[in-house]
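EI: anyone free to look at a 466-residue chain?
SC: sure, send it
EI:
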Amino acid sequence: MVSRVQLPPEIQLAQRLAGNEKVTRDRAVKKLRKYIVARTQRAAGGFTHDELLKVWKGLFYCMWMQDKPLLQEELGRTISQLIHAFQTAEAQYLFLQTFWQTMNREWMGIDRLRLDKYYMLMRMVLNESLKALQMRGWEESQCEQLLKLLTAEILHPDSQAPHGVKSHFTEIFLEELGKVGAKELTADQNLRFIDPFCRIAARTKDPRDLHDIARGIFETIVEQAPFAIEDLMNELDEQEEEEEEEGALSEEGDLEQMEEEDTEGEPDVPTTKPAETRPKGYICRPEPKTGEEAAENDEDGAGTALQFDYEAVANRLFEMASQQSTPSQNRKRLYKVVRKLQDLAAGVFPEDDVPEKVCAYRHEGRLERKMKRRLLKSQLQNKKGKSGTEGPRLAPSSRTERRKRKGRTDHVQPEGAAPKEQGRARNRRGAHSSRWGKSRVRARVAVEATFQEPKKKKKRIRESKQ
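SC: here you go
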């Protein structure tokens, strides 16, 4: 009997993760989490780069086999939370590195029906990696290490990341950063997070990457500026309200003490109602909002907006764009962003003095504008076509069109004309056709005569011999 070769546990788990049955895949994910916790707890334990690549290949096809959106979301959350099973920061960064390398390698093989769930998986993994930084208190060294990893694997021009991965990552970065650390991160820390995008925008030679960074990072900062300022004002208002409430409560306590002292000597006097004893400066706390009202307020706002020092961002971007190695096309685009940021730093919002119609036109998508232009062109062409059929026709240039026109005019009978004229027209046409018929008959006779001449000569020769 041939002894079976025992495969490494990583390969066994990868095979079960890519199984056809959902029960097998779910069990494999649970076993993988336990295996990661047990192995990383050892002093000499840990995973190698190749082992984690095999694990991620199994997880990739585990997501591939999963159907139904809710189950895909649950599986994506479970896979992304595996990063917290690693006990050390180095193991977590290696896990993230192999994830992005797997996405870059397998991206071109994903069909359009499965793109959405992998977009969701990328978003969830980025969110969990930022939460891991949050657990460590946003340490500067840890943040720099994560940004260096993301730049090398995704943003750098020499990386193997396809354009789809770069574009989606640039689009979701600020959004996920705001969800995790909008209430904790300062303006200097946020500037440190977008610094790699500034360097890549000034260095890249691909206009698509420049457009994605300018639109997904810098213009998003400009668009979120009113919401960020509104959040600051709300925080200040909440602080003022808390201070006023504390002052009102202290005044209320002093009044109660004075009333107790007064009522000790006169026990028969009825006490006043609590509502009447409230001072004039007392502020009632607002009732808690219901779920529908809170949801409406969340939809009206832009969510969690990050705080930025717009002048510092403009200076950093100008520093990178003014270098000699920066392409001229990149410099022009970045200078436009710098002007907008400088206006924000001066307190001038870009849409304050712009009419509402122009603002709506700016926010419309390119596809909608193209569709409107095409509709206008088609309407103009239809109007021109209708006016052309109603108006006078141009004289035909070709000979066939002239003949058709002539035939149509021959059939038209003028008003008050006698029926003889119509007959004359027909006779003219008949005469014209008869001329062509006679000429054809003469040509046939001539051809027959040419073929009959040799026979006549033969008869003459025979008669002369006789």
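EI: The longest helix spans residues 419-465.
SC: 👍
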